[in-house]
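Final report, closing paragraph on structural work. Over the funding period we assembled a curated collection of sequence-structure pairs, and we close with a single example.
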Amino acid sequence: MSAPVVGMIGGGQLARMSAEAATALGIGFRVLAQSPSDPAAQVVRDVHFGSHDDVDSLRAFAEGCEVVTFDHEHVPPEHLEQLEALGVAVRPGPSALFHAQDKIHMRQSLTDIGVLCPRWRVVSTLDHITEFAAQVSWPVVLKTSRGGYDGRGVWVIKSSEQAAEVLAIPLAAGAQWLAEEHIDFTQELAAQVARSPHGQAVAYPVARTKQINGICAEVVVPCPGLPAERAVQAQEIALRIARDLNVTGMLTVELFDTGEEIYVNELAMRPHNSGHWSIDGAVTSQFE
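Its predicted structure, as stored:
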């Protein structure tokens, strides 16, 4: 009997690190890479080459996989829905993953389930932004709803003149502008959880993260000086989001800690840089 095959769309560093875990577990592992020079393509035996936004490449890749997952969030949800219609197990499912692909959809869903977020508004004109700033005060954070990551597509706006400059930047197809309240936090946290298709879920220790130019540069686990009750609060927020958004697999919730409140910043539904410590520091790593 052959081992089950997990297919990961994307051939980046996260896929490469997942390959080692798959080997240790005796699981077949396949990646969809764009180039032989992709990190995972250099070490994984079962490599398909194609684009994550080409549905024919996705169909061919998924054939024979027990489950398909991702090392990034950029696969069009309509393509994943087609895979599901063919009987492919997609984890997380497209309806859950869309929360990590579209920030406005994420903010609305989190607001609907009562999770504390920065105040936000969909904007399209300079007047919208100045009206929002009058409510929450400058600076405000302006984001593209789709396509941004690692600090890209995010601006801290301190004036209407700066807002006008950013609004002149062309948006990607399907994207809108999202304005958010600027949170004066004392530290950034990452609460990571894993959830099974049956709803079982576990939480990893809460990490303190430090971002430089929008990229995670330092992770300390467990977060130094974080009171136990606030650590549990952060874990409960992540577990609740995983349950209510029906996330299967890994979920990392990036958080702003003000010392009084914990706000949700972003979601990632894949292995995350803040969880690399788990390779050597946990019984079960995020890649397993």
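The chain has three domains: 5-90, 101-115+184-281, 120-181. The radius of gyration is 19 Å. We thank the funder for supporting this effort.
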